[in-house]
Amino acid sequence: MHTPAITGSGVFTPDEIITNAELVEAFNAYADRKNAANAEAIAAGEMAPMAHSSEQFIFKASGIERRHVMNKSGILDPSVMHPLLRQRDDDEPSLMAEMALDAAKKALAQAGKGPEDIDLVICAASNMERAYPAMAIEIQDLLGIKGFAFDMNVACSSATFGIQTAADMVRSGSIRAALVVNPEICSGHLEWRDRDCHFIFGDVATATVIERMEDAKGPFFEILSTRCATQFSNNIRNNNGFLRRSRPDGVADRRDMQFMQNGRKVFKEVVPMVSTHIAEHMGDAGLQGADLTRMWLHQANKSMNDLIGKKVMGRTPEPQEQPNILQEYANTSSAGSIIAFAQNSDDMAEGDLGLICSFGAGYSVGSVLLRRHG
Fold this sequence. Notes:
Blueprint: E1 4-12, E2 16-19, H1 20-37, H2 39-43, H3 55-62, E3 66-69, H4 95-111, E4 120-124, H5 135-143, E5 148-152, H6 158-172, E6 177-185, E7 203-212, E8 220-230, E9 236-237, E10 260-261, H7 263-284, E11 294-297, H8 302-313, H9 326-329, H10 336-343, E12 353-360, E13 364-373
Parallel strand pairs: 4-5, 4-6, 11-12
Antiparallel strand pairs: 1-7, 1-8, 2-3, 6-7, 8-13, 9-10, 12-13
Helix pairs in contact: 4-5, 7-8
C-alpha cells in the first residue's frame, strides 16, 4: 500500500471578464425588450413584467463581483444572452481539452513531472463538451500520456470525487500517478435570462497531480483520507441530454434545458449535510474543526460557506482560514475548491492540516483531508 499525495495544482483563467455592472446592464436591456414585446399582456394582467437586476442584489445574494468567461460578447448582447463559441473541426482540439491542457501543464510543472510519469487522466466536470470520445482521452492524447483515461461527472463535486478515485488507485498500487482535470464552461449551461441565477457562474479549468508520497519532488500535501456521499435531489437540475430530440418538444428553447435550482431549499438542505459530512470525516480521523489550518470549500455562495465554516470550526473562520475566491471567479462548479486550494496553500507550514470540500447537485459532497509536508 502506498500513501497518495497532491504534488501539483494548476489553474487556467479565461482572459475575458464580465463585471456585475456589465451583466446588469445587459440583463436589464433584455428585460426591457421582453417587457416591450409583451406590453399588451402585461397591461391586461396576463403576464408579470420582468424585474430588473442590480449590482446590490447580486452581491448580497452571492458575494460575487465578477466572473471570467470564454466569450462575453454573446452573453452581453440582449438579443443573444449566451456565449458565442465557434464550431471546431473534428481534427482540432476541443475547447474543454484546450482549457484543461493549460491547467494540466501548470500542475505537472509544479509537481516536477512529465507525461511519462502519469498513468491515469480523469476529466471530472459538470458538463462534457460531447458524449464521446471521452474528453479525458483527448486530453491524455494532447499531453502525450500513456496508460488510460476516463470522464467523471458528479456535478460540483466532480473534482473531489476524482481525487478520491485517483488516490485510491495510487494507494492500491494500480497506478503511480494521476492527473485530475476540471475544465468547466459553466457559461454554456447557465440561463443568463433568469434574474434569480444570471450572475452565478463563470468559466475556468483546474488540475491536480496525485501520486505516491515517496515520489514527490518538492513540497506536497499528503492525502490522509477522503470521503464522498450522495443523496438524490431534484433541487438542482438540468434536463438537457441526448434524448432531447426524441421528446415531443424536440429542441425547443425550454427553461429546463439550462441550469435550474431551488436556491432556498438547496441552502437549507445542503448546509447541514455538508457540515455533518465534514465533522464525521474528521471525527473518524480523530480530528476536530479546531485542528484545521485551512478549509478550501466549494465556491457557490459566500453565505453558505460562512455558515459551514462556522459550524465546522465552532466559530467564524478568519479569511485566511477559509479562502474565498467567489468575488473574482464566481461559481465555477467542480473547479472552485481547487482554485481556492491552488491559490491559498503555498504559505502553509510543515504538518498543517487542511480540507478540500465540494458539494452540489445530486446532492453530492466530497472531502479530502490533507497534511502539508515541505
